[in-house]
Amino acid sequence: METVKPLDVASGKGKLRRAFVKVINVKKLTGVVPEGDKDLVKNAANLSESFDKLEEEYEKRLAMEALLAKLFATVSSIKSGYAQLQYAQSPYDPAGIQRADGLVVSELKTLSEMKQSFLKKEFDSNPDRTLVVAEIQELRSLLKTYEITGKKMECQLKLKDSEILFLKEKLQELMSQNKLMEKRLNQSVTLDHNSQTHFVTYLHHTVKSIRGFVKTMVQQMRFSGWDVDTAADAIQPGVLYHKRDHACFAFEHFVCKVMFEAFHLPYFSTESSSSKSRDMFFERFTELRSVKAREYIASRPKSRFSRFCRGKYLQLVHPKMEVAFFGHSHVRNQVSAGEFPDTSFCAAFLEMAKRVWLLHCLAFSLEPEASIFGVSEGCRFSEVYMKSVSEECLSESEPRVAFTVVPGFRIGKTSIQCEVYLSPSKSTPDSG
């Protein structure tokens, strides 16, 4: 507590005392008051009265300061008692609650007594001692409050540690379940690689990885200062989007177009020597599915999969785009040399490329083989062969296909719908 500075009257009192002593001593020795001190003698009564008033004012000022100090100390004690009361409630401590309640009641009584003393003008007879005691009391109350606050923070820290431990255990449990499900899926695929259900499941994972890469690419474009809407219009000119963020489907269309190009050819290649054995393709699928793409490429840089990744990357990522993203073309040079750097962008690309490659191997391992198809711009929408990527587009009467986002597949007489973006007939792009 910062106390109020008392009125400095000590020097004035000292001067008055010295003056009175001087006059009295001279008068005792000579019986005559000196000429120079006659005025002092004449005004002695007035000076004495002023001195008494100053001393009275000083004492009142000191008493008021002591009262304020005691008031603040009592308020601090009440705050400390209230903090102790809250702390004793959780966990429930009856004895602690009783002690804290008694402290608060006692200090409230002290406040009431101080109020009555102030109204009756009954000031402290020993203010100097009260100032010291009040300061000690306030410091003790603050210390107790800080101690309780520290205990509360320790409890909160332990609670957070428990939550973290629980979440870690939950994450470990979910990861174990995920591995178990993946193992069961792999086992079921191994037992029956002709199943169309597994192809549909793996297609879903492939599309998910493509959308993950597209999201990363669009984020890089925005970070590099590219106009995303203009870039989307360059891919699909003149398309009216129901919402502005639907422009991302144009990039998804572009990525799918590049990645699925030559999907109908064995190993995405026209090599006549390529084997078309179903078992061979399934072996390739089994070999690569549990291996990280970067590690596989590093260990087998001349493999078909490595050549596939290099070719698709160089075809998908334009040199100007790469310079805009990274400020240089080093990544392109590394990829051309058969090495993919350890970046988030390349990691997203390799995950997508691996999924597309495995889907391709799975397609050629089926009997009959899975074939790919798309639909032309302007085609009338058909629920048999198509699925809209946006529900808003279906509200149009007789919607037409603006472009194919994800291609569809046929396995014998079964068709897996392609995903398309439908053009609004009369609407304009939504600003939302």
TrEMBL record:
Annotated keywords: Coiled coil
Pinpoint the GIL1/IRKI C-terminal domain residues: 372-421
Q: Name one GO biological process term.
A: response to red or far red light
Q: Extract the coiled-coil ranges from the record.
A: 157-184
The record's InterPro entries line, in alphabetical order, gives:
DUF641_pln (IPR006943), GIL1-like (IPR040225), GIL1_IRKI_C (IPR056813)
Pfam families named in the record: DUF641 (PF04859), GIL1_IRKI_C (PF24994)
This protein's superkingdom?
Eukaryota
Keyword Coiled coil attributed: yes
- Where is each DUF641 domain found? 60-184
- What range does the record give for the signal peptide? none
Q: Which PANTHER family match?
A: PROTEIN GRAVITROPIC IN THE LIGHT 1
| Protein name as annotated | DUF641 domain-containing protein
From which organism does this entry originate?
A: Brassica oleracea var. oleracea
